């Protein structure tokens, strides 16, 4: 009975952050008279905050292991400058420039991982030095903004999946959607198919996870709670699918369904969810963050684990640099400013423990979406930029405080 009670308490904490996201979306949709949830703004929300989602995936593992990375914003700008320089000055094919950027990101991760894992310098110091080092190198390379990048490269963040399945009638035309809009009468078939596949995949994954827990004799949540979770997440997925599948008249460019960037993000989230929960490396990361000495005595090679964490962070930082440069259509020395703060805040808001050892990919993603909705909602509502920073700071402080209070109550109980 106590085990079920603990499990229920854990689920409440996990779903509380999701409920907070829903509430924030509803509040800003109301304040902005529905502008926040228009198809063009939903697509823009994905594009503008893709870098946060990508960086949060890597930062989650860094923080869970008990480290921090302050350099990711500068590294994004540095790698973006290298990619832009190749295409704009040397006229290198964009595919080769992307591979070079990924290679540079891995090298940066090796560099920082060496100082943290081998020399044993605290990650705070190493990445603070990296923040200054790579920002300086970025400003040397990108002394001027480099534009006129190839369209194929720009399509990474600005392109859409081709509409090869055609269109289907919109069942809500003339009801929830004004019938006067010619675009509202049709939905993109590809987007609808992707949404349906995501719902079915989520249901299968939930069923398989529950069956595995039962087979191993673990305590599982009540069936009704599992079904409710699947239903609520499915509704959220279908809502986003419906909005993205509509074309918006007057948008520039007119939306064409599913952004390519959304597929990239989906693949990364699935891969890192698997890595964090189903691989030896993922288990080692959580073991090191939970109790480094105990992990070492258990045979975990903490040096290799720390090293790989930063190599992985370097790789994901390169992916974020590619996405950021592609969306902007140019490489600028000012790119990446404050990115590290957004990534760190996303993890903490999503329930990652400040002391390490606890964190979930889903929580970090929800935290990143909360940051994104706040950014876009406050901008649409024309809130002063200074107040936007203050509000996000308060949200971060409140989220961490609630998490710590919840853990202390659980410990006392």
Report on this structure.
The protein is an all-alpha fold. The chain folds into two domains: 2-159 and 260-408, no CATH class; 167-258, no CATH class. The chain has helices at 2-31, 39-64, 72-88, 94-118, 123-141, 151-158, 189-215, 223-245, 260-278, 280-290, 292-297, 302-328, 339-349, 361-380, 385-412; strands at 167-169, 186-188. The chain has a two-stranded antiparallel ribbon. Helix 1 (2-31) packs parallel to helix 14 (361-380), helix 3 (72-88) packs parallel to helix 5 and helix 13 (339-349) packs parallel to helix 15 (385-412).
Helix content: over 70%
Helix/strand structural class: mainly alpha
Count of the separate structural domains: 2
- Average pLDDT value? 85
**Series of H and E elements:** HHHHHHEEHHHHHHHHH
Strand order of the largest sheet: 1-2
> Please, how many helices?
15
Shape: globular
Number of strands: 2
Poorly predicted ranges: 249-253
- How far is the first residue's CA from the last residue's CA? 14 Å
Radius of gyration, whole Å: 22 Å
Largest sheet: 2 strands, antiparallel
Strand residue content: under 5%
């Amino acid at each position: 009975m106590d085990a079920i009670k603990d499990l229920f308490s854990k689920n409440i904490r996990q779903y509380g952050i999701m409920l907070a996201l829903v509430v924030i979306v509803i509040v800003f949709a109301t304040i902005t008279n529905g502008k926040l949830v228009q198809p063009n703004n939903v697509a823009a929300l994905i594009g503008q905050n893709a870098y946060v989602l990508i960086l949060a995936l890597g930062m989650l593992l860094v923080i869970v292991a008990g480290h921090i990375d302050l350099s990711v914003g500068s590294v994004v700008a540095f790698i973006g400058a290298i990619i832009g320089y190749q295409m704009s000055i040397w006229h290198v094919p964009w595919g080769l420039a992307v591979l070079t950027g990924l290679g540079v990101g891995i090298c940066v991760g090796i560099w920082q991982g060496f100082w943290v894992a081998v020399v044993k310098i605290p990650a705070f110091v190493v990445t603070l030095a990296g923040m200054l080092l790579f920002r300086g190198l970025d400003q040397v390379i990108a002394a001027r903004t480099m534009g006129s990048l190839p369209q194929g490269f720009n399509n990474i963040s600005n392109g859409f999946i081709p509409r090869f399945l055609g269109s289907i009638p919109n069942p809500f035309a003339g009801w929830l959607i004004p019938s006067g809009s010619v675009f509202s009468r049709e939905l993109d078939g590809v987007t609808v198919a992707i949404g349906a596949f995501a719902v079915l995949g989520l249901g299968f994954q939930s069923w398989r996870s529950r069956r595995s827990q039962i087979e191993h004799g673990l305590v599982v949540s009540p069936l009704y709670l599992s079904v409710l979770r699947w239903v609520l997440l499915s509704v959220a997925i279908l809502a986003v699918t419906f909005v993205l599948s509509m074309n918006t008249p007057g948008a520039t460019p007119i939306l064409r369904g599913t952004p390519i960037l959304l597929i990239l993000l989906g693949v990364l989230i699935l891969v890192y969810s698997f890595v964090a929960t189903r691989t030896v490396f993922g288990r080692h990361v959580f073991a090191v963050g939970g109790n480094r000495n105990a992990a070492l005595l258990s045979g975990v090679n903490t040096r290799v684990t720390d090293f790989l964490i930063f190599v992985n962070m370097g790789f994901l930082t390169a992916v974020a640099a590619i996405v950021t440069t592609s969306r902007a259509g140019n490489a600028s020395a000012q790119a990446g400013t404050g990115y590290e703060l957004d990534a760190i805040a996303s993890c903490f808001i999503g329930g990652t423990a400040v002391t390490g050892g606890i964190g979930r990919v889903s929580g970090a993603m929800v935290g990143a979406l909360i940051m994104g909705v706040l950014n876009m909602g406050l901008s649409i509502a024309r809130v002063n930029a200074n107040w936007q920073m203050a509000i996000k700071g308060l949200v971060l402080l409140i989220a961490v405080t609630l998490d710590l209070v919840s853990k202390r109550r659980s410990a006392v109980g």
